[in-house]
Amino acid sequence: MSSESKDSILEFFVQAANRHDFTLDITLNVNGSVISGTLVSAKDYFDALSENFEDGSDVAQKLSDELVKAGETVEENNSTEANFIHMKNTKVYCGDSKATPSKGKILWRGKLSEVDGFFLGKISESKSSK
Fold this sequence. Notes:
It is built from 3 helices and 5 strands, in the order αββααβββ. It is α+β, with helices and mostly antiparallel strands. A 5-stranded antiparallel beta sheet has the order 4-3-2-1-5. The termini are far apart.
């Protein structure tokens, strides 16, 4: 896909996150799904992802190290174009009122060119009323 298929405002937010450690609560529409969470930099995403492998086997530790390096590379590259969006504390809604997965601190990465729309803020699950 051409870069013209990306929303330039959303790409601007991603670049701000990548360059200035900016975070933003945001909700995306992607191919019929709703993804809601907090936009983070690619470096923060890779650092958080690497933590999942830190206390494991030698292979897991190698994966952790490589993910940290990937985050550093993205930060050093600082290109003018962003192709991926990274989020933490993410909830994914696929036509149901319950998020999938519904538990845990979920990291999410997606192609900017696949985002159909967005709004600022994230969906908070309401407490069941009595």
